[in-house]
Fold:
Amino acid sequence: MDIAEIKSRLTLAQVLQHYGLKPDKHLRLHCPFHDDKTPSLQVYYKTHTAYCFSANCRTHGKSLDVIDFVMEMERCSKHEALSTCVTLIGGGTTENAPPAELRSRTALLTNLFTYFKNAVHNSKPARAYIAFRALDYTKLAIGYNTGQFHHGARKDEALIQACVQVGLLSPAGSNSRHPSAPAYKPFAKYCLVFALRNGQDQVAGLYFRSTLNDSDQRHFYLRDRQGLYPGYPSPETTQLILTESVIDAATLLQLPAITEHYSVLALYGTNGLTEEHITAIQALAHLEEIILWLNADPPGEIATNKHGQTLQGMNSQWRMTTVSMPAGEDINSLVQTHSDPQIFIDLLAARTDFIFSIEKENMAAAGSSAIPNGDEQPKLYIDADAVKSPPKIPPRPKTKPAAEPGITPTIPPALDTTNPFKIIYRTETATYTVQGGLPKVADHLKIMLVVENASSGQKARNRVDLYEDKQVERQAKEVSERLQLRRDVLEADLYRLTDLLEQHRDELLQQEKQQSGQPPYVLTPKEKAEAEAFARKPKLLKRLNDLLGGSGIVGEERNRLFLLLIAISHKTTDPLHALIQGSSGSGKTRLLKQISDCMPPESVTRLTRLSDKVLYNFPESYFVNRLLCLEDIDGLSEEAEFAFRELQSNGELNSATSIKLDSGQITSGQKTVKGPIASLSCTTRGEIYEDNMSRVFLIAVDERPEQTARIIDYQNGVAAGAINRNDEEKTKRFLQNFVRILAPHSVVNPYAGRLRLPPEAHKIRRLNDLFQGFVKMVTVVNQYQRSKDDKGRLVTALEDVELAVHILFESIVLKVDELDGSLRQFFERLKTHLEQTHGKHYLTAEFTLREIRQSLGVSKTQTFRYASDLVRLEYLRPVGGHMNKGLHYRISYWDNYQAVREKIKQNLEGQLKALKSEALSATATNRSTEKQPESA
Structure:
């Protein structure tokens, strides 16, 4: 068994298990090769390597593969280590195993890359594209993937299966010409190929650059991406250039004046600084300077800022510099128009040092609820003394660099997908138009195809399945006769069109699979410091409530703080849920939107409606620790309501479903969507949602005339310009940052069970569970002011319990009351109206619905619905009148709602007072005990 085969079959996990070593959750170990008090050995399962970051270790500076690890553990020779590795694998090769050169990923990719390099010599389009990119394939190792590497004399089952395993091929149903034989779809067809090498300079991965698409999907990597381009930097490297792409790195590798003094390493795009890059850079013991040479566009500038901070944080001794490029240019685009290498030498010589710093600004007065001035991003400050005069870039020449003799450097024609329902493919011979879009299933490619003669303008229209070779051949024959075009050219164009459409469809399907959520937001040091300082000040919840008012939420002082805490609970393992009740036009949806705007956008999904099964079709992890907002649940179907309820209660949806494979075969499968979620939803008829209401906190929007007046004053202030909407947006951004710094700590509540909720409450079991969860949430928000126990859990303070009771009071009362929030508000206003109108005869007063809606300012529809609900619940009864002319009503049950509220309030306040007295007594006892002298 050779070395490559051992590395391909023996995993680092097996080696660690053999020696009884178990990494922690961060994949770190106490290094076994030196006296290690803190874990300093990092394990990389992806590359099956380990690296010790301690300078005291004998392996420091060396990335250990499985063989090296065994050598160091056994303190033996390499030959002895190889024997141990073979034993760990389980002996020699097994019967009927594929050849050794196919069992090894590196050996397989090495052989295939050799084939891809040879394909360049045989492909005129490949050489044309390479010349267009101003690259020299005689100096660089560049390959070209025609997608034919598994055909003809190379058609070998062992090779095919090995290619499937690494991702170069994927099954694609049956062969149209030989139905009994399987068909395979090649990966990254018509792409340039570059080798990615591991620490042993072996081909560990491949990078593919499309020659057809320069706008959308251009870059492809094999699954389990491994290796770096052009390889791991030399251990003697003192100055390292990082480029944004492989093409840019290849461009610099052609310039001896640069490669003689600098090592070059390609990132994989603006977000492509991987763990393998970091490991390789950290292993450079002599490294003095890292040069960030990224594109001169906004993404490139952001990436320079981000990666510069990351690398500077790894080693403050490294000099960090950046190369300034002409606006909108990258290294390769510059070489296409300026072939003189002196331009790059001058740009490199003019690189600048940069220092990341945050300006100090004055904070608001202590205890103020104003927002710290912290919405600016970190700025890049450049030492003026270190800046050299930038080189003058000559104007673009009118002609492109000279191409290889006999080759016109033109880009092969690509699809025009501007209109997805009218895809156009143009060649010198004809224009091909796909009308009506593409099918989404993978077992056919039936399209409506229009072929137009480029010279005469004549057209031929036919429906054809491009996956059926006989149909394609017949189509080429018929169109050639009708449009007077060469049959062989048409047939070649159609096969080329098939590949392009197939690639475009795969890109569309891949985009559909991607999650629509925003990427995580990374707080700047200044933003984090400001948010943490705000979290440490006393009376945090009051100051948060003041900020909510500053964000544009008028009134609703108790409700808005209540909803904010429920929304923040999306970060915890046991999130909370709220149902906002209110009549139509009462502002409940606006309140929901304003609260959700104060949450980090990357953690919020706000929907207007749900179809029956849509929740089952989200990506599996999409809803994990997410806030789901439904603007109106009144229109939900029973199926959608059930799915929403299960996601709230169980934190997971599981459904058995039929799945169509790429081959077209139908099979059974299980679809899982994981939570947990926190949720906010609105309704005008909360009383009918019995199951939903027992799972959520009930919140009734304030519909009193005083609140209406406040809202109108706010609206007038906005219209008059007296209210600064920019300040409101700034407040929301600060609240978002505050939520981002909160960690989902576990909480222990020593007061749980010592405060009892009213036994009259509806579904008291679930209400008590919700209450305890809300107390925990108050503790989590106050985490910067709370102590932890010996298990790292936050300890709830009595203040947290008192705040929770105060905020939850209205929701607790609603749970006791059999009327929902908006109906209770209407009934109380009705009783007040009768008392004021009829004096001491209010108990026997009769009224009509017309009188009530005109007096209370409620719409006809809303008044009728309220009256119907109150009659059904036996609070009102008709006593006369006529259905056509209007009924007369009288209150049949005049309850004392205020007395019930007062009773609940006194009960809860009495329990809190007793708890406070106990706490004070315990504190006094502890102090007296501490003051007593010790006995002799």
Q: What stands out?
A: Confidence is low (pLDDT under 50) at residues 92-103, 357-390, 396-401, 406-412. The domain at 821-895 is CATH 1.10.10.10 (Arc Repressor Mutant, subunit A). The longest helix spans residues 897-931. The CA atoms of residues 87 and 126 lie 46 Å apart.
